[in-house]
């Protein structure tokens, strides 16, 4: 297991990058704690896989260093980093049985045969492939092959880190849930440092201790699922985390008062945003329907998704979402909405503004 340090790390696929826009991965300086589970979350092309491949040694960064437990491994080949990596699409030895595939990393390191047998049996149970242990991999389905890849990545207990690059893409939805749960159990049992790349917020939030949200080659926030939900550090985090995502309103803010479209209301703290573009961010859970004082609004439709209702509204020409409890009556005569002050965030040029007095 290892603490992973990203020191002034950046990468461009161009031979002579001239500006920040030429970098697929913009400068990063982070310490990732030994033994924690991280998810790299973001849209396609944001730099997740680039960062993972730099950590694994498959890609050499354009600048900066990567350290495992304070030892510089920037120039070390993958084999010397003592990591296990599972890729998006299955990588298996078709001529070997499932048992031989799972055992290969241990046999390659000269492990005791009894230990290999015990560990293979344990991993086969974890990925649900005990009945297929003596089948050749060649005839298995794509999702079964990916389970073998996952198992082979997890079979060693002595690795510095386990790296997963969207490993559940080819797995059916029910098995995805089971494997995520098993990965989390494995992490709790053995304490491996795990890094899991995904664009699926459900995978990230259910797997990780800390979610690393990436946007346009940057890490815009690292936090627990609760922190990302309640206090998104960037408007992208608010938009990307949550279903539906956070509502954004162009606003002016002065101290403890905000104004949207000519309607003013109190905030729960004082703010002094500095920047050209100021916005108020409110998650659908914190919008109140049928307020006497608030923003003019018109309900356009109601979607019942089983656990709750999503109320779609037109607010001054902008599409806004609110969430109501499953059993709640939706007032059809709603003409205004208000915000629960606890759920209001203030943003300047897309970055969250802290309240005066050092409040979060």
Automatic annotation (TrEMBL):
<keyword id="KW-1003">Cell membrane</keyword>
<keyword id="KW-0547">Nucleotide-binding</keyword>
<dbReference type="InterPro" id="IPR040582">
    <property type="entry name" value="OB_MalK-like"/>
</dbReference>
<dbReference type="Pfam" id="PF17912">
    <property type="entry name" value="OB_MalK"/>
</dbReference>
<comment type="similarity">
    <text>Belongs to the ABC transporter superfamily.</text>
</comment>
<feature type="domain" description="ABC transporter">
    <location>
        <begin position="4"/>
        <end position="241"/>
    </location>
</feature>
<dbReference type="InterPro" id="IPR012340">
    <property type="entry name" value="NA-bd_OB-fold"/>
</dbReference>
<dbReference type="InterPro" id="IPR027417">
    <property type="entry name" value="P-loop_NTPase"/>
</dbReference>
<keyword id="KW-0813">Transport</keyword>
<dbReference type="InterPro" id="IPR047641">
    <property type="entry name" value="ABC_transpr_MalK/UgpC-like"/>
</dbReference>
<dbReference type="InterPro" id="IPR015853">
    <property type="entry name" value="ABC_transpr_FbpC"/>
</dbReference>
<dbReference type="InterPro" id="IPR008995">
    <property type="entry name" value="Mo/tungstate-bd_C_term_dom"/>
</dbReference>
<dbReference type="InterPro" id="IPR003439">
    <property type="entry name" value="ABC_transporter-like_ATP-bd"/>
</dbReference>
<protein>
    <submittedName>
        <fullName>ABC transporter ATP-binding protein</fullName>
    </submittedName>
</protein>
<dbReference type="GO" id="GO:0005524">
    <property type="term" value="F:ATP binding"/>
</dbReference>
<keyword id="KW-0472">Membrane</keyword>
<dbReference type="Pfam" id="PF00005">
    <property type="entry name" value="ABC_tran"/>
</dbReference>
<keyword id="KW-0067">ATP-binding</keyword>
<dbReference type="InterPro" id="IPR003593">
    <property type="entry name" value="AAA+_ATPase"/>
</dbReference>
């Amino acid at each position: 297991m290892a603490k992973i340090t990203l020191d002034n790390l950046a990468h461009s696929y161009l031979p002579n990058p001239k500006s920040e826009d030429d970098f697929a991965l913009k400068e990063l300086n982070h310490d990732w704690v030994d033994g924690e589970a991280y998810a790299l979350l973001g849209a396609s092309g944001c730099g997740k896989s680039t960062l993972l491949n730099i950590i694994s040694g498959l890609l050499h960064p354009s600048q900066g260093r990567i350290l495992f437990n304070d030892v510089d491994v920037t120039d070390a080949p993958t084999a010397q980093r003592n990591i296990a990596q599972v890729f998006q699409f299955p990588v298996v030895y078709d001529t070997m049985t499932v048992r031989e595939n799972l055992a290969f990393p241990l046999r390659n390191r000269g492990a005791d045969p009894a230990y290999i047998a015990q560990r293979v049996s344990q991993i086969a149970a974890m990925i649900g492939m005990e009945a297929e242990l003596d089948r050749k991999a060649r005839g298995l389905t794509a999702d079964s092959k990916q389970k073998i890849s996952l198992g082979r990545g997890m079979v060693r207990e002595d690795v510095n880190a386990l790296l997963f690059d969207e490993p559940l893409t080819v797995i059916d939805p029910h098995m995805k849930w089971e494997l995520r749960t098993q990965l989390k159990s494995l992490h709790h049992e053995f304490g491996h440092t795990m890094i899991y790349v995904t664009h699926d917020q459900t995978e990230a939030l259910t797997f990780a201790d800390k979610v690393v949200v990436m946007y346009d080659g940057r890490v815009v926030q690292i936090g627990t699922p609760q922190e990302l939900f309640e206090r998104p550090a960037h408007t992208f985090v608010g938009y990307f985390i949550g279903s539906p995502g956070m509502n954004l309103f162009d606003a002016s803010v002065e101290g403890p008062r905000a104004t949207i479209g000519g309607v003013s209301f109190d905030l729960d703290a004082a703010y002094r945003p500095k920047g050209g573009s100021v916005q108020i961010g409110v998650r659908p859970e914190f919008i109140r329907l049928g307020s006497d004082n608030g923003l003019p609004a018109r309900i356009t439709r109601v979607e019942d998704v089983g656990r709750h209702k999503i109320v779609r509204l037109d607010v001054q020409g902008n599409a806004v979402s609110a969430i109501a409890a499953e059993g709640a009556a939706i007032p059809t005569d709603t003409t205004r909405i208000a915000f629960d002050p606890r759920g209001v965030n203030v943003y300047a040029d897309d970055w969250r503004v802290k309240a005066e007095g050092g409040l979060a």
